[in-house]
């Protein structure tokens, strides 16, 4: 009996320590971020894309002082922009130049930033996922994350980063350049495009088949209920009573999978009066009607099109692009 009580006390103590250690160290501060840091991350990724030497940019990132990095990435917008670019650039560097393969490419601390060695897992699961356990389905924090990881991590987990990170597999989202100024719109576009192109909905059998990403990190998306809300938001499909399934992930190597730039504007032409107007397209939904300012005609998508821009615009909507 005494042994049972002792073990129970020890387990409770470990759980309390674990929970306390999962608490954040700092909150966002009001200081403006150091945009030069984010520009460095973009330059690293640009050199990878253009097959230019990355050594000089790597050295600049490595020589940053840690206090400068922490204070310079002063809010989540800056942290996400910087670390998404760094992750995507370094996966390509490790796979192409260093000939690293799974699983070592994720776990070895081969990335030097601010005089500190990081792994791809440190960046993804430690910093960008706010030190969530890689195998915890998005529900459990890491066991005793380092102080450095906690200082650098985002203050709030953003599920959209899953659609911005590329791990070199055919089923991964494509690589894009993320900037501080446009991050919100870019993450919305990345999420909308990925879900619209990768999701299979069988209305007859009331089944939905999704990328394994949403299964591996289910908690990040709010569980099954949260996933269904996402599908309604980004696909405009109510799948409340549908069953959820997950497709096999294609791990075949697909390096240098850079996305083409998504155009956000389209010139829409009224089929009734011929009036033309340049409009900004929504990135997180399909616009299913449009009122012509010249003749007040209400335009709706043609059969087979998802939105009015695909039917009457000079450029198709972001999800179709």
Which helices and strands, and how do they pair?
Blueprint: H1 2-21, H2 35-49, H3 55-63, H4 66-72, H5 76-97, H6 104-107, E1 111-113, E2 116-118, H7 120-128, H8 147-152, H9 183-198, E3 200-202, E4 207-210, H10 213-216, H11 223-235, E5 243-246, E6 265-269, E7 276-280, E8 290-291, E9 298-299, H12 308-312
Parallel strand pairs: 4-5
Antiparallel strand pairs: 1-2, 3-4, 6-7, 8-9
Helix pairs in contact: 2-3, 2-5, 5-7
Count of β-strands: 9
Return Rg in Å. 22 Å
The biggest beta sheet is recorded as: 3 strands, mixed
**Number of H- or I-type helical stretches:** 12
The structural class is: mainly alpha
Mean pLDDT: 89
In order across it, which strands form the biggest sheet? 3-4-5
What is the straight-line distance between the termini? 66 Å
